[in-house]
């Protein structure tokens, strides 16, 4: 005959088994993170870095976000570089600031950390504004006996240029053939210094 103690132990064991079975039955599939809103609004052409616009930098930035249990990004990692630091950095900065998600959940519906992987394509818009500011550039090139320019090189460029730094290279057209003291064609090196000054214009009285 079973004692009262043995019956209690059997009942307790049965309760544990039933509890485990019901917990297993309640478990479902884990849920991945899901963007809130339109991800296309997280990074727009209006966010184009001014330096990237100035130097006509374009490219695709692949990224991996780690999302916290509150749906806010914890970190951003560039998985595919655009080869331009300004674009890579701007991508992660904007995503950390703007991207929001429905957090991931485990098999029991509890919020969990998750990841989100995608990419941003940076393409310069046709109506992008051109910035201009104080700047200075030193360019050199050579004029050969045929009167054509060659070996153009940007020696130095500083400031906010309204055109790509390498644009002054490659002068078009034909130049006067340089000649030496003996009247024979020679090679001549030309150095240019381009200075851009900007000043505010007071309003008309």
UniProtKB/TrEMBL annotation:
Q: Which GO terms describe its biological process?
A: transmembrane transport
* Domain TonB C-terminal, residue spans: 47-123
Q: Does the keyword Transport apply?
A: no
Using the record, list the residue span of the signal peptide; answer none if the entry has no such feature.
1-26
Query: Which UniProt keyword terms apply here?
Result: Signal
Which top-level group of life is the source organism from? Bacteria
Gene3D superfamilies (alphabetical): 3.30.1150.10
Q: What is the protein's name according to its record?
A: TonB C-terminal domain-containing protein
């Amino acid at each position: 005959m079973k004692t009262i103690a043995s019956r209690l132990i059997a009942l307790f064991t049965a309760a544990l088994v039933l509890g485990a079975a019901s917990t297993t039955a309640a478990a479902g599939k884990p849920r991945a993170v899901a963007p809130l809103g339109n991800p296309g609004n997280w990074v727009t052409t209006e966010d184009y870095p001014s330096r990237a616009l100035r130097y006509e930098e374009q490219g695709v930035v692949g990224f991996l976000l780690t999302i916290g249990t509150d749906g806010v990004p914890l970190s951003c990692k560039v998985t595919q570089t655009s080869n331009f630091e300004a674009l890579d950095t701007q991508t992660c900065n904007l995503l950390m600031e703007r991207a929001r998600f429905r957090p991931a959940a485990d098999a029991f519906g509890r919020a969990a950390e998750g990841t989100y992987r995608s990419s941003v394509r940076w393409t310069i818009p046709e109506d992008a504004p051109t910035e201009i500011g104080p700047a200075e550039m030193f360019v050199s090139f050579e004029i050969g006996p045929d009167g054509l320019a060659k070996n153009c090189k940007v020696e130095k460029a500083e400031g906010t240029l309204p055109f790509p730094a390498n644009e002054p290279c490659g002068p078009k057209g034909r130049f006067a053939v340089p000649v030496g003291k003996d009247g024979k064609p020679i090679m001549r090196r030309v150095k240019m210094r381009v200075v851009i000054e900007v000043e505010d214009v007071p309003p008309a009285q």
